[in-house]
Design a protein that fits this description.
It is a single chain. By secondary structure, the protein is of the alpha/beta class. A seven-stranded parallel β-sheet has the order 3-2-1-4-5-6-8, sandwiched between helices. It has a two-stranded parallel sheet with strand order 7-9. It is globular and about 55 Å long. It comes from Streptomyces liangshanensis.
């Protein structure tokens, strides 16, 4: 059974490709830039890299011919949301495809304050309308989201934001990929939505206290206005749409939408998720 991975060179997609190959599962990476994929993966047995314009339904259908499973790791707003609908719709018409699994987000709903959550809900609703066999992996905010603050932390030992309270059980992207591989390869986990969290909810100031301990010097949280945060993100090269999504995430955290844990990761993998301290230790040099 070959799994097509769309978003194969992203943070989670890369780990999913590697995880599937380690289990002896053949993978077709559908990518815009084969050179980038070859740089990331080399040429291991079991991996086929296919240059594919996934926004082109006819070209995508050709690339998915004979594929058994599809994994999609893309954003839920703007152009990427459109592409996700194309992928779902094309997959629904290919008889060989037994399951489409998407990387989604915790608290996917029409009522979330988070733009990302509402966007993923919209894609889920579309998938339901096509009748495709379908599952999602819904992680909490990634521990790796702290890397976005690394330049500011290196420069000033502060991180600016809106959510000076409210907690989220940050999860390591490597754990998310491990769970996704299990969902892809275990039929008993198909046709379901799998919420994933890290081991404990933390506020941003509490997470920065853990980073302070790792670095051996204090890193503080700087509370700013929404306008100031928007201007800071845009000045750092973040698109307006992405900045709006990140700000909405702060409001969702403040509202307490993320202040809980689930044991789904333990049930799926048989072990506990990584604590944030493990992530910060592994990525220490990015903040130093």
């Amino acid at each position: 059974m070959t799994t097509a991975v769309i978003g194969a060179t992203g943070k989670v997609g890369t780990e999913v490709v590697r995880g599937l190959l380690e289990q002896g599962e053949p993978v077709a990476a559908l990518v815009r830039d084969p050179g980038k994929a070859r740089s990331a993966f080399g040429e291991p047995d079991g991996l086929t890299v296919r240059a594919t314009r996934v926004q082109d339904p006819a070209e995508l259908a050709g690339a998915l011919d004979g594929i058994s499973r599809v994994f999609v790791a893309m954003g839920s707003i703007g152009y990427e949301a459109v592409i996700q609908r194309i992928v779902v719709n094309v997959s629904a018409g290919i008889p060989s495809i037994e399951q489409v699994t998407r990387l989604s987000v915790l608290n996917t709903s029409a009522d979330s304050r988070g733009i990302n959550q509402r966007g993923h809900y919209s894609v889920d609703a579309f998938a339901a309308s096509t009748g495709v066999r379908y599952s999602t992996v819904r992680p909490a905010v990634f521990s790796a989201s702290m890397l976005a603050g690394a330049p500011e932390i290196r420069a000033s030992r502060t991180w600016s934001g809106l959510a000076d309270h409210g907690r989220v059980a940050l999860i390591d992207h490597r754990d998310v990929a491990e769970a996704a591989v299990r969902v892809l390869t275990d039929r008993s986990l198909w046709d379901a939505h799998h919420a994933l969290t890290g081991p404990e909810p933390l506020s941003w100031p509490e997470a920065l206290a853990l980073l302070s301990a790792e670095l051996g010097e204090p890193v503080g949280f700087r509370l700013v206005t929404e306008q100031a945060l928007l201007e800071q993100l845009i000045a750092a090269g973040v698109s307006v749409g992405q900045a709006e999504m990140l700000i909405a995430r702060e409001w969702a955290i403040l509202a307490g939408e993320n202040d809980y844990t689930v044991d789904t990761f333990q049930q799926i993998t048989g072990h506990a998720p990584r604590p944030v301290t493990a992530f910060l230790h592994d990525y220490r040099e990015r903040f130093a």
